[in-house]
């Protein structure tokens, strides 16, 4: 009876032969040695991809006292965006020759710093990236030879903070709607326990004032579609509101339902915007104008910060926002009287 033979893993020498360089040069490439010129880097990278070469982490750890492992620390809880962030972080780490392992931080917040220092001293990881605040530790800390970098994107209940809670794109939405003739707005806000909801409300109010527009008010709807629906249904017929800026896509869907129930056409009578770029928004009738958040880019950025510390390099300066407006059918120029 025939037995299926397991596929043998390619070796670093096979990569070197295919790339036309020495195995020492491939080794230097894997260590991000700047002496490997650009042409060689390209050939080696192509050879690695063609052979699907993966470094033997156990052998490398024994030889270089390296593990090839990075820890990504997350608070306990669930957030769909964390999976996208992890995808970006893992991809960036893989390209640099590392693997990322997720470690969940439970227990009291005040005890986390001590537990993270114990993890760093264990020697299991070459670097640690915390995606949540660690009271008692600075943004860049060291425990022995293990760097700890804090990129606080989630609080202890997995709610967005830091760059993830940046609401500056709200201003871009209102500015464009103002150019399209909208003058009176309504904001449908989320749960103020979330930093993101508070900041979106704040930027809405600041932008309305800066542009000398009118706000009919802020409806506090705590991420509930039914509350958003009711907020639109309860608007007086002569309220003059022509645009509703919602704190997320669920609220926007509720607002659109309320508008349709009262006979208002979206976007001809009322423009509506959301936030999060939920996949259902593109399939709605009309499709929803929203804000897309590039969580994968956020994960890549965070790993690049950690890699810079590992290599003794300055942290990269990256100022491009991770949010962008996706303009769709739910917005249009203001109705003409």
UniProtKB/TrEMBL annotation:
UniProt entry keywords in alphabetical sequence: DNA-binding, Transcription, Transcription regulation
Top-level taxonomic group: Bacteria
Domain HTH lacI-type: 10-64
The keyword Nucleus appears for this protein: no
GO molecular function, one term: transcription cis-regulatory region binding
Gene3D superfamilies: 3.40.50.2300, lambda repressor-like DNA-binding domains
InterPro entries: HTH_LacI (IPR000843), LacI/GalR-like_sensor (IPR046335), Lambda_DNA-bd_dom_sf (IPR010982), Peripla_BP_I (IPR028082)
Protein name according to UniProt: DNA-binding LacI/PurR family transcriptional regulator
Species whose genome carries this gene: Allostreptomyces psammosilenae
């Amino acid at each position: 009876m025939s037995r299926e033979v397991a596929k043998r893993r390619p070796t670093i020498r096979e990569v070197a032969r295919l790339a036309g360089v020495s195995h020492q040069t491939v080794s230097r490439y894997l260590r991000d040695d700047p002496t490997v010129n650009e042409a060689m880097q390209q050939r080696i990278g192509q050879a690695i991809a063609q052979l699907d070469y993966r470094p033997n982490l156990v052998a490398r750890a024994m030889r270089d006292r390296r593990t090839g492992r990075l820890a990504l620390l997350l608070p306990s809880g669930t957030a769909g965006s964390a999976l996208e962030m992890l995808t970006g972080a893992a991809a960036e780490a893989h390209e640099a020759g590392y693997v990322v392992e997720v470690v969940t931080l439970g227990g009291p917040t005040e005890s986390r710093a001590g537990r993270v220092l114990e993890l760093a001293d264990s020697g299991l990881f070459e670097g640690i990236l915390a995606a949540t605040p660690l009271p008692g530790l600075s943004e860049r800390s060291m425990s022995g030879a293990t760097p700890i970098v804090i990129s606080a994107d989630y609080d202890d209940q997995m709610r967005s903070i830091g760059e993830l809670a940046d609401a500056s794109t709200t201003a871009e939405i209102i500015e464009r709607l103002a150019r399209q003739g909208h003058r009176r707005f309504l904001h449908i806000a989320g749960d103020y326990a979330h930093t993101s909801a508070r900041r979106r409300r704040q930027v809405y109010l600041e932008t309305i004032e800066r542009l000398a527009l009118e706000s009919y008010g802020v409806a506090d709807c705590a991420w509930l579609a039914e509350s958003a629906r009711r907020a639109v249904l309860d608007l007086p017929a002569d309220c003059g509101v022509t645009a509703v800026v919602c704190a997320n896509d669920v609220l926007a869907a509720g607002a659109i339902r309320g508008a349709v129930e009262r006979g208002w056409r979206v976007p001809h009578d009322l423009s509506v915007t959301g936030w999060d770029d939920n996949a259902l928004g593109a399939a709605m009738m009309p499709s929803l104008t929203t804000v897309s958040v590039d969580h994968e880019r956020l994960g890549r950025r965070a790993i690049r910060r950690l890699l810079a510390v590992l290599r003794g390099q300055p942290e990269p300066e990256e100022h491009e926002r991770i949010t962008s407006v996706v303009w769709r059918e739910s917005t249009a120029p203001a109705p003409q009287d």
